[in-house]
Amino acid sequence: MFLSSHTDAPSVELEDELVGQIIALNILLGGGSKHTTANRLNELFAEDTLKLALTASQRIAKLSSSEDDPRCSNETLLWNWYIDAYAVRNDWHHERHLRSQCYLWSLEEHVHFSAQVFPLALKFLLSESGHYKLSDRDHAMAYSLMPILHTSDWWECESENSRVPRWNKAVQQGHSDIVWRKLLTETLDFEPPPQQ
What we know:
By secondary structure, this protein is mainly α. The chain contains ten helices and no strands.
């Protein structure tokens, strides 16, 4: 995966792609300011990567505005960043022997979830920074999803015996009204990740 193999000395040519990775990691690690994100990345990656993290917010426009580059499709960028960030985060937990405390989804479960929900989340983030125009309908849907996606533990299960991630539990318990169910089942065609 990209970050796993390119964190020692990122070249100038890799900057734009790395910025994308940082945006995804910002989501996965709980959001926050660019300085908060940089501090978290500093625990994981090399100093050069930290410097890039500090300028990431200024480079989103450049990365997201090139319509001629198919690499800049919102959905395509998100898919690649998200899967790479998944691998990096898993490696981070394994290296710190936190597997017994943090029960992560399998790659298949992540793929299943991200294919349905994360493209909308990315569009929302880009719209908030002024780089993407969401329809009123899409904005309302994304606004409902983001509070859960911005938490630092939405991918975790509560115990080793549980295969129900906290995101699913939040949907079932905290957002079980008719509007929320309609959003997930009809608008996004949401299905829970496959149980193992």
